[in-house]
Specification:
mainly alpha; 4 domains; 2 strands
Length: 197
């Protein structure tokens, strides 16, 4: 296509597309190419540093230090989230044994089974939907993970209380919004529960 060209394109939306009214349908779009933009690398200088760091006296050296600090922080966060935190929680879950509220375990099983079902093919889903036995198998396949998740939540909550760790509403909302944006969606049920007041 060249600038000014118009074309009609057809797009197929898969069965698991988020907008129900488009699922499994072919839709035609009329498109026009208005302009072509070329990405030009930014010139790394003090002006860029001032703009990025939002400081009138920022320099390229300041920008380099900030970039290095962010890379280090990101690597530490990844290490914590991907390795240390899961290993620590796994150790705590194995160390402590206590009765879990079955209603909460069942809710977590529902949650994990739904997540797992979303990754299945259309054929696999149809087989499960028609069979209570297959649904039970799916639920049982996530039971241990659900129990460990619930147990970890209770352990972390107990540690937070023992250490007098609190989270303000502002911190919670900020983290919740970040989580929602990073996942590109938020559960409407979670929203209903959290934002009811």
């Amino acid at each position: 296509m060249k600038v000014g060209d118009e074309r009609q394109i057809t797009v197929f939306f898969p069965e698991n597309y988020q907008a129900e009214n488009l699922r499994g349908k072919y839709v035609q779009f009329d498109v026009a190419l208005k302009k072509i933009k070329e990405e030009v690398p930014a010139k790394i200088d003090d002006d860029l540093a001032k703009k990025v760091l939002k400081k009138d006296d920022a320099t390229v050296e300041d920008l380099k230090k900030e970039a290095e600090k962010r890379v280090v922080n990101q690597k530490l966060t990844e290490l914590y989230e991907d390795k240390l935190k899961p290993e620590y929680l796994e150790t705590l879950v194995k160390k402590f044994d206590f009765a879990l509220p079955q209603n909460i375990v069942e809710q977590e099983i529902d949650n994990l089974a739904n997540q797992k079902a979303q990754s299945l093919s259309k054929d696999e889903l149809e087989k499960i939907q028609g069979s209570s036995e297959k649904i039970d198998e799916l639920r049982e396949s996530v039971r241990k993970d659900a129990e460990n998740s619930v147990k970890a939540t209770f352990i972390v909550d107990a540690i937070a209380k023992a250490e007098n760790i609190t989270v303000t509403d502002e911190e919670f909302n900020q983290d919740y919004l970040f989580w929602g944006v990073s996942k590109w969606t938020r559960s409407s049920r979670v929203d209903e529960v959290l934002w009811e007041k």
